[in-house]
Design goal:
little secondary structure, 2 strands
Length: 312
């Protein structure tokens, strides 16, 4: 390391614009410090105290921030490419427009953080806590969000194309217009989530829970929804062409005007669902439960169906 500042007390210090590249600041006290545009690339900040510090536009590329305390810190437009931020506390931090591509954020606390417009493509957020965080228009392309907590988070317009959200908790999250094409949401919790006009085409939602979720005009073409729970979900005008909904629970779901052409609904539960004006051409409804279901022509089915293909 270039400078040895381990455990140094730099509380409130003005260090803006200087170079601390590759400095050893492990367990240093930098709370409230002014580090605007400071070069901290490759620096060792493991366990450092950076609470309420101003790190806006700072360069933290390849820096180690494992277990660092960054609650309430300002990291607006900071560069954290490939940085190691595992187990760090970033609660209520400002990360607007920050560059976190390929960063390690496993088990980090980002509860209530502002990440609007941040770049997180290829990052690892496994088991991190993002409950209540703002991630509008964030780029999470190909990111690993396995078992991440995003309850109540705002991901409107976010790019999650190809991301892994296996067993993620997105209950009550806002994902209006989000891109989740090809994403892995197997076993995810999306109850009460707002996915209006979201792109979930070819996404894996096997075993996911979407009870009371809002999915009007969402694109679920070719999506995997085997054993998924969509009870009372709002799917008006949704695109579900060629979707696999085998054994899915769509009881009380609102599917009026939805396109289910070629969809597989074998052994699915559609009890009391509304399919008025829905398109079911070529859909497989073999052994589907249609008790009380409102069919496309407005009629009500009273029992199980043994139809294999719906021909209209």
């Amino acid at each position: 390391f270039e400078a040895d500042l381990r455990q140094a007390d730099l509380h409130g210090a003005s260090l803006g614009g200087i170079s601390l590249s590759r400095a050893n600041l492990a367990r240093a006290n930098l709370s409230g410090a002014y580090l605007f545009q400071t070069n901290l690339s490759g620096a060792e900040l493991r366990g450092a105290n950076l609470r309420q510090a101003n790190l806006s536009k700072a360069d933290l590329t390849k820096a180690s921030l494992v277990g660092a305390q960054l609650a309430g810190a300002n990291l607006c437009e900071a560069l954290l490419f490939t940085a190691d931020v595992r187990e760090a506390n970033l609660r209520q931090a400002n990360l607007r427009g920050a560059g976190l591509g390929c960063a390690l954020l496993n088990d980090a606390n980002l509860q209530g953080a502002d990440l609007d417009g941040a770049g997180l493509a290829g990052s690892n957020l496994t088991r991190s806590n993002l409950n209540g965080a703002s991630l509008r228009r964030v780029n999470l392309y190909g990111a690993n969000l396995t078992e991440v907590r995003l309850a109540g988070a705002d991901l409107s317009g976010a790019n999650l194309d190809g991301a892994c959200l296996y067993k993620a908790d997105l209950r009550g999250a806002t994902l209006i217009g989000a891109v989740l094409a090809g994403a892995n949401l197997g076993g995810a919790k999306l109850d009460r989530a707002n996915l209006r006009k979201a792109d979930l085409s070819t996404a894996n939602l096997d075993g996911a829970s979407l009870c009371d979720a809002l999915l009007p005009e969402a694109d679920l073409c070719g999506a995997q929804l085997k054993l998924a729970s969509l009870c009372a979900a709002e799917l008006r005008g949704a695109q579900l062409r060629l979707a696999d909904l085998r054994l899915a629970d769509l009881s009380r779901a609102k599917l009026d005007g939805a396109d289910l052409s070629g969809a597989i609904l074998e052994e699915a539960t559609l009890a009391a669902a509304n399919l008025s004006q829905a398109t079911l051409l070529g859909a497989n409804l073999n052994r589907a439960q249609l008790a009380g279901t409102v069919l496309p022509d407005g009629s009500k089915k009273r029992a199980f169906t043994n139809l294999k293909k719906f021909t209209g």
